[in-house]
Amino acid sequence: MTQPIQGVHHVTSLASSARGVDSFFTRILGLRRVKKTVNFDAPDVYHLYYGNGLGTPGTVITHFPFEGAKRGRPGTGEVSVTAFSVPLGSLAGWRDRFLGAAVQNLREDVHFGQNRLLFPGPDGEVLALVESADSRAPWTGGGVDADMAIRGFHSVMLRLADTAPTAQILAFLGYTETQREGETLRMTLPDNNGAGIVDLEISALPMAVQGAGSVHHVAFAVADRATQDTLRANLTKAGMGVTPAIDRDYFHAIYFRTPGGVLFEIATNPPGFTRDEDPDHLGEALKLPRQHEHLRQRLEGGGLVPL
Length: 307
Ligand code: ZN
Hints:
The protein is an alpha+beta fold. The chain has a single domain (8-303), classed as 2,3-Dihydroxybiphenyl 1,2-Dioxygenase, domain 1. The chain is 17% helix and 33% strand. Zinc ion is lined by residues 10, 12, 217, 219, 253, 265.
């Protein structure tokens, strides 16, 4: 099998406030809201997508804001750090930007040889900016200029009781171990969309309890449905319980729980976020999945917090 995966497609997190998420990811991080829709299974809850100008796979962080939800309890079997890539030399500017926006508890370190700034997201989740040479075009319409703007995901770090079973799944998806720092493994996809790194850290914490601030799942990108079908068959043959392909309007998705506890999704690049909106107006109107269109009046009339 040639390498089926192209890198991370999107990362989806749980949150406690739609407005909190919206203001943090657009005004502070300068990402573009590329889609305002609702959770397929809970249409009273938004599904908000933030990324680069077109929401290119590998740049998109999405949220399910359950208003007033309790925070999760960090632990194993989940994403511990979601990291974005920023230009070399830009972290000092980001530090000033965060301090100006009253984002506190910043922490700088060097992680696998790269300068990294860790900061808390709107629900206390651990996010990071990593300086790296990254040729992806940034969105600059959100008030952050090109010399600082986020390029997309740099990596995700998974916190696990044992790294071996998850490393094995990643190897199955085409990742190879490229570096090791203490007990943390870095696995990289040789040919990738810019978001080709997954770090695996080992921890003695109990299993995480999901809640606001928790990453719900990590989605990996494939070129098309045929690749997804083949990968689904191969994962099933390897003993993984994989869902059938589900139409998520902007991509087709399959899901499986990895042995380490993290929920993985495989998502197709097409059709993407311009499927139902003009590229100049992405993320502005409330888009509803067809089966929830009849709820529009109620949702727009106060069922959802206006954004
Ligand atoms: Zn997803």
